[in-house]
Amino acid sequence: MRSSFFKGLLVFALSICSGAGSFAQAPAAKGNLFIIGGGDRSASLISTLIATAKLGAKDYVVVLPMSSAEPEASFKSIATQLAKATDKKIGNLNFDAAKVQDKQWLDSVKGARLIFITGGDQNRFMKVVLNTPLYAAIHKAYENGATVAGTSAGAAVMSKYMITGKQLQDTAYKETFDRLTDGNIEFEQGMGLVTSVIIDQHFLKRSRYNRLISALAAHPTFDCIGIDEGTALIIHDKQVTVAGVSQVVRLTDPKNLKVTPDHLLKMDGLQFRLYTAGDQFNLK
After folding, report:
1. Which domains does the chain have, with CATH numbers?
2. Can you list the residues of the chain whose pLDDT is less than 70?
């Protein structure tokens, strides 16, 4: 059944040779990013995602479930929701070390109009994708006009500097940071679909202010954005629209940022903005 599906899917795939390694985001990408902060996804939010993707008659959707420890269940969850909003084909491409070299699978990614990255562990996803032709294929699809969507871990991977969730000064994982000290936040290389933005997810639900302030201190010229559950950022170029049921926090421009001899962070102020559905703003 899966074999026959992919034969049909590949009819629509673009015949573009895959490239190796990672590269920077093209400055004039035609696509959109649809970045969901995790949690429940309302039917309205899924409808907005489908409308953003502007699926044509021959277009299809690809789900990348590699973040999840249970990729089949993760795929079924989002595929069920998407199928209620569109009649387009929805493919499950659970890449591994062998499949990231598979030209047919890579062409299916390049030709997709909507790519959805599921939740789970962002580090698990990037371990499969980084420095492979799949990284390049996702970027190529985005540059050609695809909407790249992700939720939870799939939101975190959008950034060039991806928050791993680990505190470098504490061996025990916590959903929220318990200190504001220099060098406490760990980053790894993400997808770089947004290059001067750091994304955090489940933001209000898990009160991740300390983590986002730590990210801002590490990258003070960036937009550091926390997206709550059931809520999304829709990004086209530098234009952003908020959708969903909750809020988005944006931290920028720390004033007189300093580090004490005891490695504590301090600053005289920062720009704090709080957005709800329908609000729009421009990234730096």
Report:
1. 2-279 (3.40.50.880)
2. 1-28
